Amino acid sequence: MTAVVLAPLVLPGYVLRYDMVFVPRQPLNWEMLAPADSLPRAVPVDAVVAAANLVMPGWLLQRIALVAIVYLAALGAARLLPTARLLPRVVAALAYAWTPYLAERLLLGQWALLLAYACLPWLVIAARDLRDGRRGALPRLVIAAAPAALTPTGGLIALATVAVLLPLRRRATAAALAAVTALNAPWLAAALTGPAGGASDPEGVAQFAARAENWAGSWTALAGTGGIWNAQTVPASRESVLVPVVTVLLLAAAVPGLLELRRRWAGAADRLFVLAAGGFLLAVAGVVAPAAVLLEWAVVHVPGAGLLRDGQKFLIPYALVLALGFALGAELLAARLDRAVDPAAGRVVLAGAALLPVVLLPDLAFGVSGQLRPVRYPADWAVVAERVAERPGEVLSLPFEGYQRYGWTDDVVVRDPAPRFLNAPVLINDALRVGAVTVDGESPRAASVGALLAAGQPAAAAGTRWVLVRRGSGEPAARVLAGLRLTHDGTYLQLWENPSAPGEVRVAGTGRRTVALAAHVSAGLIVTGAVIALLLLGSRSWYRPRTH
């Protein structure tokens, strides 16, 4: 399955799409640990990627991450299913790893969020083992939660999973909650001490709400784990008129399977259902009028509530429960046919159930029909990175758009690679255009520079040492570059130096850096301790499937 989904990755280069931006060597600097003036959306994932780039190039790291997503999601769902039979496990693997959710988030480039998707089955296994007092469960829970906590959303899902699945008033529960909270500490520390504040544009609630993918509406799309807000990242097969019909059949097959799951996991299954229901309610909040109004108020007045605007991303627990229910439902039907007809009939049903996700979403194969195709960075990027490293200073990236199409990426929309490619703070526009609507960003610095440029002022007035111009579309007028000195004029990039700019690099204050570093170190020590503990214990319970 992994080979079929990620087949284009055998080609050299980097898969660049929207938020998925890997570079040859991402520098490790304070901007990765404590962003100077923006919300920590990429904390701690950027720091982890930069640290990993010390031992491996970006192209290899990207392939390891993407392979881990598909492989661990499939294997985790198979291991979690409470059955002794192989074919139902195969059904669970395909039902969880071959989904619209995975395809759409891959096309949106949110690979770090998909690590949380892949880790959830393993986190549930570890939480169940910890609940049962099995040896080595706590360190395995920490290891399963660590990749999820690379992003704020994944960290919150991991924390909610532990809080819901484990019983209260137990030492093991307190230890697990404390450990997973510490894994979330890097982005929490950066958010609480940063100048950006926690308020977001309420316009984003409507723009990031789940959307319909065919005639059946947004609720049915969500029920099938689809419904992402960005229509450009929806596989073509999701527009088929038959998709809602097959989705209803899948749900109907899952109902008896969920009842069977309750029987096999007495008590524990209900907690998992609560977690899934909570995620589904967050997903539909943006499309239900009263909930949407409440959400609009929250993103303005409650710090950090902007994380809830894109509610569809919280479908992860629901997708897992749906996969388990569908696999057990298929197993129950196959068992009845085994008794009433012939054992071969039951195997045919299970094989058909395993192939149903593929039939429903055939274009996930081969990199979502070739859309995950690697490209190469032009040589301009290496030249610009070298010039900036020689004379460090803040960089203003123009055109002032965070996402843009580039000729060298085959016109695929990509987030500006400059913040990850250059070893310096890079100022980009964090506002997001969704169709004709612009959702305001949260960075005060970006907002002030955007206003300056909109007023027709030269870029030198922003006070940055460097101005990077991406050639091809929307290049700035000559007056915007007045007072700057051209130091590199390439095919795809121009680099201009501002002689009047201050020499220092703008970074977070000493206090913020100390807090951010302490949070990252504590999270790293907890993960390291969990790995050492697991090695010393020699626990292999993850590899022994449980049938009840």
Kindly describe this structure:
- There is one protein chain.
- This protein is of the alpha/beta class and about 550 residues long.
- The chain has 2 domains: about 350 residues, no CATH class; about 100 residues, no CATH class.
- The protein contains 23 helices and 9 strands.
- Helix content is about 55%, strand content about 5%.
- The strands form 3 sheets. Strands 4-1-7-9-8 form a 5-stranded mixed sheet, covered by helices on one side.
- The two termini are about 25 Å apart.
List the helices and strands and how they pair.
Elements: H1 2-5, H2 30-33, H3 45-52, H4 58-80, H5 86-97, H6 100-107, H7 111-131, H8 137-148, H9 152-165, H10 171-183, H11 185-193, H12 203-207, H13 217-223, H14 243-264, H15 268-284, H16 289-301, H17 316-340, H18 343-360, H19 365-370, H20 379-390, E1 395-398, E2 403-405, E3 413-415, H21 418-421, E4 426-427, E5 432-434, E6 437-439, H22 444-454, E7 466-470, E8 485-489, E9 493-497, H23 510-537
Parallel strand pairs: 1-4, 1-7
Antiparallel strand pairs: 2-3, 5-6, 7-9, 8-9
